[in-house]
Each structure stands twice: as structure tokens, then as C-alpha cells.
Amino acid sequence: MVADFTAGTLLELAAAGRLAAEYPLVCRIVAALAQQEQAQGELVRAGRLLERVDPAEIQRLHPDLPGVSVGITGHGTLSGLTPPLRAEFARHGLVARPMVTGFDGYVRELGDPDSELSAARPDLVLCVLDPAMVFDEVPLPWTPEDVERAATAKVALIERLAERYTGTGRGTLVLNTMPLTRRHTAQLVDWRSRARLGAVWRQANARLLALAEQHPSVVVVDLDPLVAEGVPVGDDRLGTYAKAHLTDDLLAAYAREIGHLARNLVGRTKKCLVLDLDDTLWGGVLGDDGVDGIELGGGYRGEAFLAFQRVAKQLGSQGVLLAAVSKNDPDLVERALRDHPAMALRDADFVQVVANWRPKHENLAGLADRLGLAVDSFVFVDDSPYERGLVRRELPGVAVVDVDGEPALHAARLLRDGWFDQRELTGEDRVRPARYREEAARKGFLDRFDSVQDYLRELDVRVRVGPATEPEAARVSQLTLRTNQFNLTGRRLQPQDVRRLLHDPDALVLAVHVADRFGDSGLVGAVLARWRGDLLHIDNFLLSCRVFSRSVEEACLNWVLRHARDRGAAAVLAGYRPSSRNGLVRDFYPRNGFVPEGDDGTMLTFRHPLTEIAPPPAHIRLVEVHEAP
Amino acid sequence: MNSAVEFVALLRAELGLPLTEDDLERALHELPGWESVHLLWLVTILEQHTGRRINVVDLLEAPNLRHVYDLAADEQGVRDAR
Questions:
Q1: Which chain A residues are within 8 Å of B44, Cβ to Cβ?
Q2: What is the ipTM of this complex?
Q3: Extents of the domains making up chain A
Q4: Which fold has domain A272-436?
């Protein structure tokens, strides 16, 4: 069992000369070590052992494992970087192929296309910057202005090098900010100059950070947050005697970031965060304490659990799929997520909530299957050592995050690793959770039924139709602007157009809200109609693709027809204007009791005589609002 | 770290080098797999292990592991701390 592996196992493999041969096992051991409390030291130790192994030999023996070549250059001595780098890559199942260039050779290595590094064209180039590269250039005595000049010149040089390298190189160039240390600030005795130094220093760092925006292939690691965790920047003895300006601890923390970058490079960024519930997302045991008895929101621990939920929600807002897997009563979980007043994560925030009594690894495997994802794309957080051990053993590809009885540390434990780190977010990332959620949940549900009718009946679709309200105008407008498939006439309306219609006594603007057992889809449909004498004209009918195939449109149309009849209409008229995208609704009106009336080449028109109105679909609970609020 | 035996075991574990007590007197560059960066690593390793500050210059100039051991060994540490 992997959890039983220790550094000792690694040592035995090293002593037996088996590290290359057993590299996949080494990866599992290192991954387990990385989760320990004193992980950094263990990882560096493992990395030193790995330094004795030729990466080419590992790749020869395990051609399936992705190798990532890493060119390492910079200003100072960087001997402390390769051991943690080897280990961090190993824990992700990657083979690091580091190539360390000559001391302080970054200008030539990046600037000269014939340099050793440029010629090698590594996947990643780490150009490690440190504060000494600026302070080496200031005169004595020095002022903040001297530092500003030196820093500006140095950053300009790095900008040129980045430009040149990214223009010719194929890989990713990684730069970093330069931490400012007290060793320098304290040499200025007046507070004003010291503040000035801080300001010019940060301007230089801001310019470095901006390089990531200017060059798609540049990544800038901000070292400040790593330092803020309490990692010392430099050791003056090693800085002075060995030109090692950054501590091994800081280089190890940096290597951890690079490991996740490499993971992203080979397409292994995690996609789904799977959370336990009891004592992970809230305190206490839901089954024992009840919805009202769990710790969340109020009290010391309740605050801590809420803070953790908020972090998960924040990740979820950026395309990370959230799922819950809990040994619990599903009804109780549903009630807790729905009814607990402090809950930051609601049912709709999860792509799936799995509450049952099956072993967690089975639930994770099932979840992966339903989401169409590899289980290796999961990060699993649980406070139970038993559950974590089980998942580690049965599903070694899952990243398991250890949380314990101190909920205030849950977030830090999860965020310690950049499991979900990406180069850049796209719009698609932001909507992905919702899409997965709906598709996966309904698909999983559909699988349980022999017929679509049975499925729809159990889906418990609730449709609320009624006159749109002022706050809904923007969304109704958005539906007309964004909906292409279920859009009968293609008439687009700006928010102000919709607002005008809301105040027009002859206009009817209907908002359609849909919910089902998997949650509330929100305002997903609209009907725009107008009274002309005793005729009601439907100008447009819109429905988001998220609620297709559930007869929501028929329920809405039924509402409109009955509404018209009850108001004494002689008939309802409607039109269909074909577009390149709306072919699927060509027969919408004729299928629902309308008779064709005309075709002027651009618009087909239909009439419903209101003599016989078909009942609404039986599986839909129609909630009707006939008067404008 | 109370003995040279323990010291050699520590180096084996930390550096992954196949060292024995016989290697203590050998010149560093003659040791199998020895590289100059190992001395830098030893600063961190020995300070973490002993919990005491080590004399970095002496370590960087150490001709052999016996010298390193003397620097790190308990009595030496106490002397340095004074």
C-alpha cells in the first residue's frame, strides 16, 4: 500500500540501483511523501537520490512516461533547484530532464540562438532571477535612485531576452519576481528612502509580471506569495561564499510551482475537485447532528468550514468541476445543501453530489465514468485517513489532499498545490462546470430508465411561466441575442427594447423559468407577443439549448394559448423565419395545433384557432403567473 | 550524530552515495559520484540534522569527509557555538 511507503523504501531502491527500473513505483512513493507534513524536506531528499539517475535511462525503460526537458539558467548558483525539481516532476508521473547551464550565463543562453540552451530547445526554460542581480550593479554608496536605474536596466535586458527567446524558441520561458530583503532595505536609514526603494523595486517586479501578458509563452512566477508563507529568501553565508542567492527552501517551493506547470504542459492539469462532506465541508456528522446541527457559518469552526467552502466555490467559478462524494443519506445531503442558511456551496455548484454508503474509490470511479473524465483528473479532499488511504491505494492517479480536524487549515492544504493551474482561462472554462453538471446529472439519471417518457416523469420538470419583470429584462434580452437554435424569428432585442415592451400595455413578454430535480436552470426561455385587436401575435419564442428535449416549449405554448383564449382572443398568430441555425423548430407551430397560413419567402406564418387546446405535457408541473407583478 | 558510522549512514541516505567508513579519509573528488554541489547540500543537511550552525567556509574547504564530520560532530558544534 502506497501510504505505507516511506523514504526508506526509496533508499532501498536507490541502494539496489533500481530507481530507474522502478520509476513508476518511485513516482507513487514520492507522491505519497509529498502529502506528508514535512513534505518539502522529504521531496528534496528523494530528489537528491533521483539526481543519481540518468533521465534518459528512465525514459528508455519507461517510454510511456512523459518527459519534460528543463533548461535552467539564471544569475546565481542554482544547485539547490534540480533535486526538488526531479522530485516534483516524479510525483506527477513525469520525467524531468534538467539541463543546467553555466553560472550566470542567462544573457548568452537566452540571447544567443546558438547557445547550448537555445540549441537544445527545452520544453521549459527556467531563468531564475534574484535580488543580487540588481544590487550587484549599484554603486557604493547607493540611493534608491541608483537601485531604480539598475533595476530598470536589468528588467529592460530581461524584456529583450524574453522577446528574443520567445521569438525563436519553441518552449515556455519561466521568469520570476525578485524578492526584496531586509538586508537591502535596512541599509537605508531614513524611512522615506526605504519606502522609495520598496516602490521602485516593486515597479521593476511589476514590469516582470507584465511580461506574462505580453508574451503568451512567458510565465512569471511571483515569489512574494511563496516568501510570505515563511520561506527565507536568502542565506547570507551561501550568498556570499557560493553565490547561491536564493535558499534551497525557496527553490524547492519554486520547483513545486514548476511541477504543476509541467503537468499543465503535458495536459495533465486536474479538472475535478471531489470533496467529502462531514468534517470537510462542514463540521459534524450530518446523519447524527441533522441539518441544523452541523457546524457551518456560526462559531469558530463553523466560520472555518464556511471559509473552505468559499475557496472551493472560487475554484469552481473558474472551470474547476466540483463534486461531493460522501457516506451519507442522500436526502439529508440534499436538504443540507438546499436549506442550511450558511451554505456557500449549493447543490447547483456541484457537477454531482454522490451520497451513499459505497466505498469512496468506487464512487470516484463511477463519477469519472459519468463525467466522461479520467479518474486521474480528480483531486480528492477528505478528513478521514481511512478513506484517503483507500483512494490512494485503489486509484493512485487521484491527487489526495489530507485535511484533518483543524478546518481553518483545509484551504491551505488544498491550495498548497496548484492542481488546477492553467496558463490562461477562457470563457469556455467559466461555463464548463454548468455544462458538465447538467449533462452528467441528466445523463446519469436517464440511464436508469427504459423509456424517455419514464425519464421525463421522474425528472420532475417544473416550468414557471409569467410576465417578465423589470430585473429580468436584461436576461430576456440576452436570450434574444444569444439563442440561435430555438429562436423562431431571430428578432434581437437590446435590454432597453425589452424594458420598453414591459411598459407597453399591448405587449406580452413572458419569462420562462425551468427547474428539475437536478436544480434550477433559471430564466431559460422567453415569449414575446403582442395584442392586435382580438388577435395575439407571437413575435418570437426563445428557449435556451440547456432545456431542450423536455417539452418545456409545449408547456409554454399551452400557457400562451390558454391565456389568449381566456382573454377572448379569436386566434393566436405566430411566425417562423428560417435561419442557418433554427431548422429544428421549423415544425414547432404546426406540431402544436397551428395551421399554416402564409409564406412570404422569408417568414412562414401560422394560426391557432383556439377551438381545441391540447393539454400541457403530463410530466411537467406548470406554475402559472398570469398577472404582471 | 554521535559517531562516524552514523555520519556515513546519514550521507548515504541524504546524498544517495554508496559511501562506507573507509571513504572518510579519501579526498572528496575521489569519492564515487561526488560532485562539488554536494558540499552546498551538506550545509543544509547537517544544519537540519544537528540543529546547529555549521562553519560554511570550513565546510566548503573541507578536503575530506572526516573533516566534514569533525565540523558537524557534537563537540565541534559546541565549540563553534561559543
A1: 80, 248
A2: 0.90
A3: 1-63, 66-265, 272-436, 456-624
A4: Rossmann fold (3.40.50)
